[in-house]
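To: structure subgroup
Subject: Chain for Friday's discussion

All,

I'm putting the inputs and outputs inline so they're searchable in the archive.
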Amino acid sequence: MNFRHQIGKSVDGRNLWAYQQGDPDATESILVVGCVHGDEPAGIAVARLVIGSRPLADANILVIPDLNPDGVLAGTRQNAHGVDLNRNFPYRWQRASAPRTRYYAGPAPLSEPESRAAMTLIDRFRPQISIWFHQPYGVVDQSGGHVRTERRFAHLIGLPLQRLPRYPGSITGWENHHFPGTTAFVVELPAGTPTPAAARRYAEAIGDLAASV
């Protein structure tokens, strides 16, 4: 069974959608976010395939295809306020960069409607696993959750597991700190648009992971 929920609006008033795929009464859930940075949109295609796939009987998969629609339309990393959403979360938030620069963290933690929408959804469902798609490095990041889960997903999609730098105010840093025992991690897809076969492989790996939670 699939449900669509409006979880908020972007700075420019575009709807932010979350899709619930599978069994809404399942005790554990997985969150998949296709796009955080507007110039890294490859994961949107993967998210849409997950939404369109056959629901699993005992899994609850939450999918946000695009958390930054204003940035995707403009082709910018940041949202319409010029804020990097992956620096805007409360855990170790810092005024890391000046306004109108690429990594501007915003005037305060959770200053952005997109960040607040994601946080509210996560607080409500407390996903056991969260997968956040980025680009362009072609790796699965060892992001601070259960490395076994990260390693398994890396193996399923055929990308190496690698520890990338930890950034202040990151979404995965906040999740892993705020919800001990869960695993939020970044998947850095290769640059460019994924081939249909690659997108299918990533989506099927999410299903495999969901079936084992």
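Points worth raising on Friday:
The chain has a mean pLDDT of 94.
The first helix runs from residue 43 to 52.

D.
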